[in-house]
Amino acid sequence: MRIREVVVTPVAFPDPPLLNSAGVHQPWALRAIVELRCGDGLVGLGETYGDAPHLELLRAAGATLVGLDPFDTNRLWRRVCRVLGGADSPDRHGLTGDSSPQKTALRVFAPFEVACLDLQGHLTGRPVADLLGGKVRERVPFSAYLFYKWAVHPTADGPASLVGGLPPVDDPYPAALDPAGIVAQARQLIDEYGFGSIKLKGGVFPPDEEIAAIRALREAFPDLPLRLDPNAAWSVETSVRVARETEGLLEYLEDPTPGIPGMAEVAKAAPMPLATNMCVVSPADIPPGFGQGAVGVVLSDHHYWGGLRRSAELAAICRTWGVGVSMHSNSHLGISLAAMTQLGAALPELTYAADTHTPWQCGVDVLERPLPITGGAVTVPDTPGLGVSLDRDALARLHENYLRCAIRERDDTSYRRIFEPEYTKRRPRW
Ligand SMILES: [Mg+2]
């Protein structure tokens, strides 16, 4: 069985105005859907970022994969590296740390690796979790991912024309700009999905306001683990102060400050573990990051750690160092959720609920039957491969969104500046 055709389809889906330390989410989130077709209707699926520079690299790599055996992911890696050379493609938002040619290669490789594993599952009749060592859990827990947010995307000053039109429907989540709004959002998400842990995306308001939100969450949900992630918006000094003031409240504090040396300094004084998806983001970061004791938890993300097997390798390295493993998320669709679920099922090291943006999709997807989150977890499918299949009509609709919207690269900062011309991205800000 060989790969006969590689199809990369960019899609766009409505994204609510979620705030972070880089700015605010644009009205459309971009993704690329990867299909590896082997004939007889057999298709392997992958999903990744849809930004134009990444798309160009995906297409260049995809063109070299015809004829590849889907079990030969070592050859896949060599072909991707050969076609990329030393190419680098940084993100503008910088929410997943600095880029490098190594990270770019892993990021381009990842959706093809996931699609190959999906094919391997179909060819062997086994779920991907079995190919990763077998299930250690039947259900993979996810956390409620809270955001400060505006009620709707503002329409003043004509942003609709700048982004190619606003999405047709508003999201069901009202504005959340203070502790009461954050608690209400948590209730809404927990009522609908049953989440058993809570993460707040911070770095938006001065730290004392975000500490107040954490205290309000603790009062409203006394038994649920809490996390706070300001995306490196704080200095070392501010981070240490917040860490001390939130002692006993947080299961971990995520990326309070930029860079491995700064994180190491905060880690020495913080009473809780520090987690990261910003300072240890590729293999080259592991020796300095772990060696300096900068992090107690790594938020793995198969989209840039090079797919599911390499994410499992990362978890094994974390185990050796006594570092915990959690899972990071950017805005995504159901193929990514299925991949995270299969990986989460097979990772003994995953002892925290994973992040997911799934509720913020507001039900939009490219799948026939997206895996549901119930009771705060996704039940791992026993069907072959990832356990999901494409809804071709939905894929066509989301591709049409992409063609209509003017966004070609995620840029939270520029979008926020449409409404607040003085806004700048600063890390640290406080
Ligand atoms: Mg983070």
Small-molecule binders: magnesium ion
Q: Output the CATH topology of the largest domain.
A: TIM Barrel
Domain tally: 2
Strand order of the largest sheet: 7-8-9-10-11-12-13
The residue fraction in helices comes out at 25-40%
- Globally, the shape reads globular
Beta-strand proportion: 5-15%
Class computed from helices, strands and strand pairing: alpha/beta
CATH homologous superfamily (4th level) name of the largest domain: Enolase-like C-terminal domain
CATH architecture of the largest domain: Alpha-Beta Barrel
Order of helices and strands: EEEEEHHHHEEHHEHEHEHEHEHHEHEHH
Low-confidence stretches: none
Radius of gyration based on Cα positions:
20 Å
Determine the mean pLDDT: 95
CATH class of the largest domain equals: Alpha Beta
